[in-house]
TrEMBL record:
Pfam families: Cystatin. InterPro entries: Cystatin_dom (IPR000010), Cystatin_Fetuin_A (IPR025760), Cystatin_sf (IPR046350), Kininogen_Fetuin_HRG (IPR050735), Prot_inh_fetuin_CS (IPR001363). This is Alpha-2-HS-glycoprotein 2. GO terms for molecular function: cysteine-type endopeptidase inhibitor activity. PROSITE patterns: CYSTATIN_FETUIN_A, FETUIN_2. Residues 1-32 form the signal peptide. Its main location: secreted. The gene is ahsg2. Keywords: Disulfide bond, Glycoprotein, Repeat, Secreted, Signal. Residues 38-146 form the Cystatin fetuin-A-type domain. It is found in: Secreted.
Amino acid sequence: IHHTISTLTFTFAEMNLLCVTVVLGLLAGAWAQVMPAVDRPACDSPEAEAAALVAQDYLNAQHKHGYKYALNRIEDIKIISTPAGDVTYVMEVDLLETDCHVLDPTPVANCTVRPKVLTAVEGDCDVVLKNVGGALTVTAFKCKTEESTEDICLGCPTLLPLNDTNALDLVHASLAHYNNNSINATYMLLEVGRLTSQIVSGGPAYKAEFVIVEGNCTNDACEPLNDIMATHGFCTASSSSATVDCKIFPNMVKYSINSIIQYTFFLILFIHHGLKHHKLTRFHNPELNTLLSAESLESAEVVPVAPAVSVVAGASPASDPSTTPISLVPLCPGKIRFF
Ligand SMILES: *[C@@H]1O[C@H](CO)[C@@H](O)[C@H](O)[C@H]1NC(C)=O
Ligand SMILES: *[C@@H]1O[C@H](CO)[C@@H](O)[C@H](O)[C@H]1NC(C)=O
Ligand SMILES: *[C@@H]1O[C@H](CO)[C@@H](O)[C@H](O)[C@H]1NC(C)=O
Ligand SMILES: *[C@@H]1O[C@H](CO)[C@@H](O)[C@H](O)[C@H]1NC(C)=O
Ligand SMILES: *[C@@H]1O[C@H](CO)[C@@H](O)[C@H](O)[C@H]1NC(C)=O
C-alpha cells in the first residue's frame, strides 16, 4: 500500500490516509516478525534437488514391497522459515517406478525406469521435510500411485492383476524349474512383483517378476527361512521363451538395523489381490496434513511487501524490489528427467 503514496502534495484527507498507511505499515512489519516467511526457490535449484533426493530415498525406504522409485520431476517447492530459525520444506515430487525391487541393494540411481510402453507406474507425492541441525529429514508425506494410461498401445504388454491365475501358473512353474536346477538351496515365493500379458500370434504371452527367499526344508516340507542370513533373489520369467532368470542378491546382513525391522515384515507373502502394481506407502504423519495441502498453506503465507507484479505464480517473490530483478519466468515445475 505505501507504494501508492507517490505525490508530494496532498490534502488534509490524504494526510490522514498517510497516517493510517504508516500505522498499517508498522503493524505489517511487526506481523512479519512473528509470521513465517515463505521462499520459493526454482524447482531445479541445487537446494530443491538435494531435498527431492532426500525425499526419494526416504520414500523408497518406507515401502516394504514392490519396486524402487526414481525422481522424475520436482513440481513445486516452498521453504518456510520461522523467525525462531525453523526451516520447513514443503514439496511436490513426481516419481517413476524402476525395475529394481526394494530388496535389491542396487542404488536407485543405477536402476532403470520402466518405459511407458511397458506400462509405467507413477508416484505423485507431497512431502514435508525439516532442516534439523543442518540435515534434511522427512517428517510427513502423502503419495498417490497410478498406472500411466498414456501411450497404451494395441499389442503392447498390459499389466495383469497380481492374482491372475494364468500368470501365477507361470510363476510357480518357473520357480519349480529354477529349484530343480539350483544345487544349494530350495527357494520359495516371497512376493509377486509384476505380471503382464501380451497378445501375440498363438495366444497370450505372459511375463512375471517375483521375489524369492531361501526355504527351510525338513523332508519334503519347506517354509520361508525367517532369518536375516536367508538368501533372497529376484526372478523374471517368460512363458513364450519358457525361461526363468533369477538374480540372487548379496546377503541381507549388510542392511542397517532399520532395514532388518522391515525385513521381518517381508516374510508375509505379499500378494495384493486384484491390484496390478505395488503402491508407494500412502501417507505418514497425517496430523501434519495441513502442511501437505497447498490450499491450507496459502493462508499462513506472508506475502512479502513488494509491488504486485512480483507475485507471479511460480516466480520467486523478491524480498527487496529495488535490488532484486523481478523474474517473470515460472521457476516451477522443474525439468522432466525421464518422460
Ligand atoms: C552405479 O553406477 C555407477 C556409475 O555408472 C558405477 O560406478 C557403480 O559401480 C554402479 N553401482 C552399482 C551397484 O551398480
Ligand atoms: C527336474 O529335473 C529333472 C531331471 O533333469 C527333470 O526330469 C524334471 O522334469 C525337472 N522338473 C521340473 C519341474 O523342471
Ligand atoms: C553352492 O554353494 C557353493 C558353496 O557355498 C558355491 O560355491 C556355489 O557357487 C553354489 N552354487 C550355486 C549354483 O549357487
Ligand atoms: C527350520 O525349521 C525347523 C523346524 O520348523 C526349525 O526348528 C529351525 O529352527 C528352522 N531353521 C531356521 C534357520 O530357521
Ligand atoms: C483377484 O482379486 C479380485 C479382488 O479381490 C477378485 O475379485 C478376483 O476374483 C481375484 N481373481 C482371481 C483369479 O483370484
